[in-house]
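Bench notes, afternoon.
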Amino acid sequence: MLEIGEKIKEIRKKKGLSQEELAESSKVNLRTIQRIENNESEPRGKTLNLICEVLNINTEDILDYGKQEDKSYLMIFHLSVIVFLVIPLGNIILPLILWQTKKDKIIGLNEIGANLLNFQIIWTVFTFISMTIFALCKILHYGQYEILFYAFIGLYTLNIILPLIFAVKTNNGKIESLYPNPIKLIK
């Protein structure tokens, strides 16, 4: 398992930042950043929070507290959404179960899970509304209801394609929240 300094250095490099840029952005002394990355000292409290804020990561993820990296679980987590094709609300229930059982054991799952579940809740509401309005318009023979059918098909297709894309991105090492979330219901 990587030391905290090595993790910070690795994340800093992935973000394309130099030590100087990290020091300037986080308002931490350059020599302190160098000591941390060389594992000569361990960041604590405010220093760790400032560095993590600039790197856009959670302090819990950097400290790990027994957490491990598991790309395959994260891929399965993303793909679990597709169960909605067979089980109504399965796109929320199965990911919720997977998230609750391992969110404290796998690096990044807590944030990814909240992000995925927020998207799935919003997706489910929009899909249900479009399907209901389409059915009512069809029953009442009300005008241009075909567009609602296409919206419904588009939403279904979106919820099949996005999990596949995000599972592939996770397999390639992109472990972060990927779903667009204008509304955060779960934190």
